Amino acid sequence: MRRSSNTVPAEAIDLACACATARRAARAVTQLYDQHLRASDIEATQFALLSMLNAIGPSSQATIGHHFVLDKTTLSRNLTLLRKKGWIETAPSTDGRERRYVLSKTGRSRMAAAQPAWRRAQEQLRGSMTAKDWDAMWKTFRTLTDAARAAR
């Protein structure tokens, strides 16, 4: 039997590749959050970067990249976009060779405006899992991140 192109399979096909499976999960979660955040005119990845800067304060690109496990090129592209939107700005640094980034007033306002949509996405995802699965997810993500970093 042939499926129409609009039919979504009941469950994803398991692949014997940790990378492909982790990326698939990340895309599915990102799509959920993007759907909720769309009305706030912010993407999940942008919201995550603003949230990180809000949590850790003025930070260098290297520090942000370390926390997000992002390569320099991808992070530069994202930081440039956030600066163009006026959501982040540079902050003074003790090392003149280093540029530090901080949330701007506009960035704090954008993040605050998007917070309810983020919360709805978070609640929807959490509501589709048991408490045990939710806790296991966090543990698995930390373990996976640490294992991949150690393997490099």
Q: Widest sheet: strand order? A: 1-3-2
CATH homology group of the domain at 59-127: Winged helix-like DNA-binding domain superfamily/Winged helix DNA-binding domain
Number of helices: 6
- Assign the CATH topology of the domain at 59-127: Arc Repressor Mutant, subunit A
The level of helicity is: 55-70%
Kindly describe this structure.
- With 152 residues, the chain is mainly alpha-helical.
- It has a domain at 59-127: Winged helix-like DNA-binding domain superfamily/Winged helix DNA-binding domain (Arc Repressor Mutant, subunit A, Orthogonal Bundle).
- It is 64% helix and 7% strand.
- The chain contains six helices and three strands, in the order H-H-E-H-H-E-E-H-H.
- It has helices spanning 18-37, 44-56, 61-68, 72-84, 105-127, 131-151, and strands at residues 59-60, 88-91, 100-103.
- The protein has a three-stranded antiparallel sheet.
- The longest helix is centred in the C-terminal third of the chain and has 23 residues, at 105-127.
- It is globular.
- It starts with 17 loop residues before the first helix and ends with a helix.
Secondary structure: elements and pairs:
Layout: H1 18-37, H2 44-56, E1 59-60, H3 61-68, H4 72-84, E2 88-91, E3 100-103, H5 105-127, H6 131-151
Antiparallel strand pairs: 1-3, 2-3
